[in-house]
Amino acid sequence: MLGAGGRLVILVTGGLGFIGKHFVQRCIELNHWVTNIDVVNYAADRVVKDAFETSANYRFIQADIATLDHLPECDVIVNFAAESHVDNSIVDNERFCVTNVLGVQHLLELARMKQRGDRPRFIQISTDEVYGDIAEGAHDETDRPCPSNPYAATKAAADMLVMSWARTYGLDTNIIRPTNNYGPHQYPEKLIPKSCARLTRGRPAILHGDGSYQRCWLHVDDTVEAVLSVVAKGRPNTIYNVAGDLHVANIDILRHLARFFEMPDSRAWTFVEDRSGQDHRYSLDDSRLRALGWAPRREFTRELESIAKTFDFKRFL
């Protein structure tokens, strides 16, 4: 269904998480009707939770996607809800299976049980990690998943569910696989905010292995625009990769941050044992998405310095 004036009615799950909250904010600005379902776990941003409540075109439901009892009316579901920290998945993989796999299955079933004409479109936010390591070149959407850790495996399993519900039950679906996201107000368990939190207090950042692991970095606002491009122009039952233009080794990110915090490299980081299931390099071909007119616009070094300058490690206390 469409709201007044052609506005979309968008159901966002995980809309207090990092990418989800930026997506919710942009949808509110675009005057869409937004229902945000979030369990409000340890990584939820309670600052934006209160701020969103002042918007007339927004409502919030605190619930777990794995036990949600009904699906609010909507045109499209955008599922950001997920456990996403790889380290946590290694020590507590069951929680990742419940949220990332069974939660998605439950959402798909709630969508399927709607009358065929009222079924919402289902957009699953996945990850580049489902593809696994690639020494050179880039994965495109036709490559088979080859996940290396429990987090990536649960996201790959969810993708398979989405594709099978589309084929078996006729749901209109998309899967979006972004690379590593960064940006303001990210929970400090990920590399950039965690490093800022430590460096702000004069403590060295943590580097796994030798720090040479390469990731393609994508500003969260660019990811939000990519998702909106798929909402507006995506082909039914199609996967879209989302990549930035810059591959950076973890140690080089810390060199940037060390210069900003005026710390010598010798004090800015310390090496720790490599994590299990570590991939050396991720890289995606996102030409399919760029054909829709999307391209990343944020410049990494400038945005990284902005994050460091405005970092507030007390936000999630």
From TrEMBL:
InterPro entries: NAD(P)-bd_dom, NAD(P)-bd_dom_sf, Sc_DH/Rdtase_CS
Domain (NAD(P)-binding): residue spans on this chain: 11-302
A matching Pfam family: GDP_Man_Dehyd
Superkingdom, natural source: Bacteria
Protein name in the entry: dTDP-glucose 4,6-dehydratase
Natural source organism: Caenispirillum salinarum AK4
